[in-house]
Design a protein that fits this description.
The protein has a domain at 23-55. The termini are far apart. It has helices at residues 2-21, 23-54. The longest helix has 32 residues, at 23-54. By secondary structure, the protein is mainly α.
Length: 55
């Protein structure tokens, strides 16, 4: 049981280390995903508005 707990603590610490050392890359990826999602949402809104104008 102690080895399992130590393994999980080690994995968590490793994840924290990777996150801290690659923070700018992670923030860039999150920003790119947010931009894509916002653009898709805008296209869907435009499509719905165009459909309503046709009707």
């Amino acid at each position: 049981m102690q080895s399992f707990l130590a393994f999980n603590i080690n994995a968590f610490n490793n994840l924290l280390y990777i996150t801290k050392t690659n923070l700018w890359i992670i923030l860039t990826i999150i920003g790119a995903i947010a931009i894509v999602v916002m653009n898709v949402m805008e296209e869907v809104e435009d499509y719905v508005t165009e459909e309503q104008n046709i009707i």
